[in-house]
Amino acid sequence: MSVASVDRRAEELDTIAAVLPIERRDELAELLTDQDVETLRHLVNEGMGVNTLRALTSDLAYLQAWSLAATGQPLPWPAPEALLLKFVVHHLWRPEQRQADPVHGMPAAVEQNLRDGGVLKATGPHAPSTVRRRLANWSTLTKWRGVQGAFASPALKSAIRLAIRAAPRQRLRKSAKAVTGDVLAKLLATCATDSLRDLRDRAILMIAFASGGRRRSEVAGLRTEQFTVEPPVIAEDDTPLPSLSIHLGRTKNSGASEDEVVYLTGRPVDALNAWLAAAKIDGGSVFRAIDRWGNVSRRALDPKAVNDIVKQRVAIAGMEPGEFSAHGLRSGYLPEAANRGIPLHEAMEQSRHRSVQQASSYYNNATRRSGRAARLL
């Protein structure tokens, strides 16, 4: 691979930096082919969601690295069934069997190659959900190239099913513990000063939670033009409360042309306004990095930084950072709504969950725990 072609791909990736993990630009330019980059540019022009594009790009880079390590060749389009089966065998294997059979699973040389390239960090077999997601994205990219793959073949489906059955894994939650109202209060108590960091972090925590448990990528990507001032909401004591609507645009759960809208009322609006005023932000990205000298960046926070902020506040509050993540703000919203007696359909309007089954799995755990069925004795 020539240096010139890598440099050209890096420049082309710069043109779609807004929707790609561009901190990996140089690595992606090494791994992806010219046709890969052209496919990604096409997907950007088609208006595919930002998070979907990031996942597609990350998985495509991994698949290309794996193919080069396992076969010595870039991914063929379409991939033959044998290569798909090899991918499953390399990623869904039994640690117990490897102890008795060293060649079981991913070959040591392939694994070391991927680790040296920085694309494989986990130890042991992959989670079945990761393998399924990568195969699904592989299938999507295959279709976008105008060819058909063997992703629906009975042999592949059977191989996945048997591999998962042979190597069961416990499904881990994205955040071991939910950030419910009592936990959120402790986190907010650590943001008690008028420093820029406290004002920013307080606004992040309150807006992420109160807007229905927004994902960290949605919080990090918020821009001032997404907010619309709404008429005040009159509280029970006749006090007018400030109100804003947030136009989320397309989200993970929305349709292709839908503009998801959620609302903020009262304290979260005050927290947002306090941060914007202190940081002198009158346009563009809402949440930004702050350097050691107190200077506010012009660029948006990285989504990972939102997760880091949650963990930092958890640690300051005297709790275990490993038990919480930014996703805890989302998984905690519906249980808190249940605890406060808010009907599920009303809570879902704010959280924007589309699946009643998924939403109720959060919501019902709280109502069942405190309900009459759990107190028969």
From TrEMBL:
GO terms for biological process: chromosome segregation; DNA integration; DNA recombination. Transmembrane segments: none annotated. Keywords: Chromosome partition, DNA integration, DNA recombination, DNA-binding. Residues 350-377 are annotated as: Disordered. The keyword DNA-binding applies. GO terms for molecular function: DNA binding. The keyword DNA-binding applies. It holds the Pfam family Phage_integrase. This is Tyrosine-type recombinase/integrase. It comes from Rhizobium leguminosarum. The lineage of its organism: Bacteria, Pseudomonadati, Pseudomonadota, Alphaproteobacteria, Hyphomicrobiales.
